[in-house]
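Render this sequence as a predicted structure.
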Amino acid sequence: MRIARFTTGEDPQYGVVTGELDEFGQPDEDAVVVALAGDPLYVGMKLLDQEHQLSDVRLLAPVLPRSKVVGIGRNYAAHAAEMGNDVPAEPLMFLKPNTSVVGPGDPIFYPPQTSNLHFEGELAVVIGRICRDVPPEQATDVIHGYTIANDVTARDLQKGDVQFTRAKGFDSFCPLGPWIETDLDPQHFADGVRVQTFLNGDLKQDGSTADLIFDVPTLVSYVSSVMTLLPGDVILTGTPEGVGPMEVGDEVEISIAGLGTLTNKVAQR
């Protein structure tokens, strides 16, 4: 089930998106979104007698983390190598503020503090209930679903600072979308799902979740052993090799098989 957050020009709503995805991760022209009564993370799946053509609504970030976005660094060996780093012995965690989250079609703002802004296409895990110390074999019980993320990074700031907060924490540095897919098991990604990033239509990243060093259940277990996870928290699972710079005016598309495509343009802050 694809759960979206959308607006028709009034207050944001949640809804269920119908229709099939084509090979480019786009829904068919007859796709509709059936409205839900409130946030399904808190009130459950209560369908309303109200639907809209998907083409008539504006999609928003499918989740607004009330607490945190947890990033995982160097979780693909080839990406660690391209950055001149070793593969970590255990998951390398960092935090992005929830104010960094934006939705499909929203601008990524290029701040004046950096001159080397990079894209990082990633699979994102959305937590469905409060949890702590989750065993890997029980990760499915606490996962609400999956979406696509762009872990935007000011690479020069990342290299210059001791930690990643500034480099990854600016407003608009965490696009999420286009929706949350709830009907997938972590094994779906362990078997290998293609992750692609396009810059102005040119393929830049072409990886597979089969190459994750630490898989989804391991990440949920590891993060929850350190901090309590709350409904709506997001875990970014790491990016494949091929990251690179973006400039003002560029368009970034991230596609993950079965999840769709997340598109954002870069704008001057």
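Summary. The mean pLDDT is 96. Residues 216-226 form the longest helix (11 residues).
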